[in-house]
Amino acid sequence: MSCDRPITALSSLPTCPHCHSSVLKGHYDLSGLDRHQWIQTLRQRPPSLWRYQELLPALKPQHRVTLGEGYTPLVPALRLGAAWGANHVYLKDERQNPTGSFKDRQATVALSILKARGVQRLVLASTGNVGIAYAAYGSRAGIATTIFFPQDVPPEKVRETQVYGSTVVQLPKNYDETKVAAAQFAQAEGWFLDQGVKGFAGVESMKTMAFEIAEQLGWRSPDWYIQGVSGGLGPIGVAKGFEELLALGLVDKVPALGLIQTAGCDPLVQAWKAGAAEVTAIDHPKTTILPLATGNPGVSYPILKALLDRHGGAMTTVTDEVAFDTLRRVAGQEGISVEPATAVAIAGTLDLIDQGIIAPHETVIINCSGHTYPVSQAILDRRQLKAN
Amino acid sequence: MSCDRPITALSSLPTCPHCHSSVLKGHYDLSGLDRHQWIQTLRQRPPSLWRYQELLPALKPQHRVTLGEGYTPLVPALRLGAAWGANHVYLKDERQNPTGSFKDRQATVALSILKARGVQRLVLASTGNVGIAYAAYGSRAGIATTIFFPQDVPPEKVRETQVYGSTVVQLPKNYDETKVAAAQFAQAEGWFLDQGVKGFAGVESMKTMAFEIAEQLGWRSPDWYIQGVSGGLGPIGVAKGFEELLALGLVDKVPALGLIQTAGCDPLVQAWKAGAAEVTAIDHPKTTILPLATGNPGVSYPILKALLDRHGGAMTTVTDEVAFDTLRRVAGQEGISVEPATAVAIAGTLDLIDQGIIAPHETVIINCSGHTYPVSQAILDRRQLKAN
């Protein structure tokens, strides 16, 4: 399903030129890297994901499109962790990125590669966060971005995308349909189409979370990495990051992956629980949590299943209602205001603890993927808050 | 006007117990600090403002209320700088803080001190950002917060404050009047009133921006520190930070301060341009940029004037209209979406360059104080953006 042939960053293409697979993987020659010297060198570098440049696509300094993203804090979940009887739960606070979500990682790597390749126009479909991130980095790179949004993207996120001067096309369609429309448009215009998990930059960028977590824990792996998942790009990247550190001898394992979806859109969870080899798409996702409303995760399922088979892990679902309750508890008890997709991940963590799948002594990292800020007032209205 | 007597952090009070001045200043015994060793030690610490703990109020670890705030990136202004003929303009990206603004610095220090002192209830008046920051850190500290907002605070900021479980009191008054109401309420209830620039934590926290800037520039001072100012807390703190580094021999000067206000609310600028010893309050501020709508900056003016007399600097104004134009240019050209108060600072920087007050070769740091995100849709509506 995924192509493992070595390619170099600057020749990266939407498909592998050899086998035409749509999922590309970066390879790095690590043989010349002295791990002891490297971790000393890292300490002299600024706290950005580019500190790991030896394990990122090779780019000339003038092509690096950066806003100081990454190296986000690992914040202990104090009261929630204690309430759960778990003392080693941390939130990787991805809100503290330039546009307020972990998608800035993808954007900095993708736009840097595209700038190096001379790309001038970029098209992508997004449920919000990726669109905002690419709009920001596109503006910094001088690359014109056209963002396709499905119908339910709230005006707050549309506005933020437009602030950067991006062209926004919002369609009366769901996300899966919008992706098709964006692809057709890009092909018709001859513009570059960003493809998320299928693209080279997606996985290569998300793996930097693994590097940071390992460095922040004193060069060791956590027992679990948990994320609310749609296409599954994040955990695929994070697992690759830990695999690279394992190959370097800097950590001793790849963490188990905890993948959480909403009850109204859980194709990955259903396939995994059934032990299926392929995923069955859900035609009409029923969730108000749009970033997780991918009914057809396509190519990512077999990759994720293989990762869970190899390194351990679990998938589970939570309802939208439980997620919103969790959002308010996390804000009120930890001082961290998260997007609903993050609340899904946190609620799912509790579920895995309740099920006895995560043990209380284990070190658990939850991707705190984004802020409450840009979430629609319509979804998270003041009455809901006052009812709390 | 301001009290310089040494006090210890944990005995800090709203007024000096000796002279009853309302502006308190922290003093640190720096004689035991080996500066060469210290800057090596810093590199081993996480990228948070607490890395400078030797120059911050002494607190036991269990009292530190932190979300990994501070040590925000210094992002070069690429195209704007080039357009201005200035190549050393940097944005200190304070958006990359837990609640998206530089007020998180104040909140982490203030709530830590209050937690150490056993304070359980806190009252403050805010135009938005401070309220959100204190609500978040209050929630993490387990301290109940009541936030007084004036009439024009947008629902987006009110909502964000409520997410954290804070009590919000929004009054049909302007900011200066709301401060009075909050003070009366706090006194009547016997709850702790946070006083911003008059408080110990305000100045002590804001000075960490100076430490970070100096470290990020390789232990040297910039030529200018620029900020959009209301009460002037930020630059007072930053100047104190550079003064402490100067005393340690780590930098060779305190930067000139560039203080920018809106044309509709510029009491500091008017007083400074007239060479006045005291400020004259503006009764009816005329600006839609609420964080800068302090008509009566009170005690801060003489402190700021003294700083400009001693270290150099300038004050100027920009109109709201120019600020909003600048907001769109910065987002569209630098990939940085800022709050209007930040746009005021950036537009003011250009004005000081145009006036020849800032020379193109000088190193200029602009406080990129907050995000566009939580700014009202009503102020920054989609029509305005499309007209761009």
From TrEMBL, chains A, B:
Highest taxon of the lineage:
Bacteria
The processes (GO biological process) annotated in the record are:
isoleucine biosynthetic process; L-serine catabolic process; L-threonine catabolic process
* Statement: the UniProt record of this protein carries the keyword Lyase: yes
Task: Name all Tryptophan synthase beta chain-like PALP domain ranges.
Answer: 65-369
Signal peptide range equals: none
Q: Name one GO molecular function term.
A: L-serine ammonia-lyase activity
The record's InterPro entries line, in alphabetical order, gives: Ser/Thr_Dehydratase (IPR050147), TrpB-like_PALP (IPR001926), TrpB-like_PALP_sf (IPR036052)
Q: What is this protein called?
A: Threonine synthase
Organism of derivation? Prochlorothrix hollandica PCC 9006 = CALU 1027
